[in-house]
Write a structure and sequence with these properties.
By secondary structure, the chain is mostly beta strands. It is built from 3 helices and 15 strands. The chain has one domain. The protein has helices spanning 3-16, 82-85, 157-164, and strands at 38-47, 50-66, 69-80, 90-98, 104-113, 116-127, 130-138, 144-151, 154-155, 177-183, 188-202, 208-219, 224-233, 240-247, 250-260. Strands 8-7-6-5-4-3-2-1-15-14-13-12-11-10-9 form a 15-stranded mixed sheet. A hairpin with a 2-residue loop joins strand 5 and strand 6. The longest helix has 14 residues, at 3-16. It comes from Prevotella lacticifex.
């Protein structure tokens, strides 16, 4: 995978880590979003000290049915633009289902990156505070790889995003940390968020927002590494406005373009 593709994938991961804190298997009240919310972003890479728009991403949430019960459905779609496609094509689609009280049910991700076409699937079964996670990855050659993980706080990127937006950061102090686990088709890694105070951030929609500054760290077996610093609205919505990535092979960022169907007025 080339440098541009790595940057875009990390942008998507960082985007969905927003307020990923305090998660556990039990249900919790959704206080942050409603069905019909739609968020869109511009994605940028830093190429030889020049910021270049490399693609777009959108995240939508709807109310549907899953295996006979009402459920929220979150959908993330991301793609490189025609300019970036000349170097590397990315077309990723992620879908997650969770209950009305934000317990994850199912997650899938279809990946088209260059010549690689993968499918990830995650099924959740809860027994008290313990969760059995059935993982599947289908690779480009059609081979399937299965894994079972048992954790008390493991969530995919989308269900974590939906769930954690309802947590209240009003009493956080600078340096505050909270840990969790992120699962996909073949891995489960520990991670944590560190709070860095408040600041004002401009979006790509002409608006400026008062935001919480958060840094995301992940451990893939070689110690914790800071993946991104991102900024979310300091209000009940907790909408991600900007994500900055400082990578050893360059920089990247995602900036908010539009916010529709939000549950509360954006007071930040």
């Amino acid at each position: 995978m080339n440098t541009q593709a790595k940057k875009l994938r990390l942008l998507l991961i960082a985007l969905l880590m927003t307020l990923s804190v305090g998660v556990h298997a039990q249900g919790m009240a959704n206080t942050a979003f409603k069905a019909g919310e739609f968020l869109s972003y511009n994605l940028y890479f830093n190429w030889k000290f020049v910021w270049i728009k490399a693609g777009n991403a959108s995240l939508s949430t709807t109310l549907t049915r899953f295996k006979g019960q009402n459920a929220y459905k979150a959908s993330l779609n991301a793609s490189t633009n025609s300019r970036a496609d000349k170097f590397y094509i990315i077309r990723d689609n992620l879908t997650a289902y969770c209950t009305g009280n934000l317990v994850p049910l199912f997650y899938s991700k279809t990946t088209h990156e260059g010549d690689r076409r993968n499918l990830d699937e995650v099924n959740y079964t809860f027994n008290g505070s313990r969760c059995t996670i059935k993982q599947r990855r289908r690779k480009t050659d059609g081979s399937n790889h299965y894994k079972t993980t048992v954790k008390s706080n493991a969530f995919d990127m989308l269900s974590v995003f939906l769930r954690a937006r309802s947590w209240d950061a009003a009493h956080w102090r600078t340096g505050y940390k909270v840990g969790f686990n992120i699962v996909d088709g073949n891995s489960c890694n520990p991670a944590y968020i560190q709070y860095g105070g408040k600041t004002n951030i401009s979006g790509d929609n002409g608006h400026k927002y008062r935001c919480l500054k958060l840094s995301y760290f992940e451990n893939e077996g070689k110690g914790y590494k800071r993946i991104a610093t991102f900024y979310v609205t300091d209000d009940k919505n907790h909408i991600p406005v900007l994500i900055d990535l400082n990578l050893k092979f360059g920089s990247a960022k995602a900036k908010i373009v539009s916010i529709r169907g939000n549950r509360y007025p954006v007071e930040a």
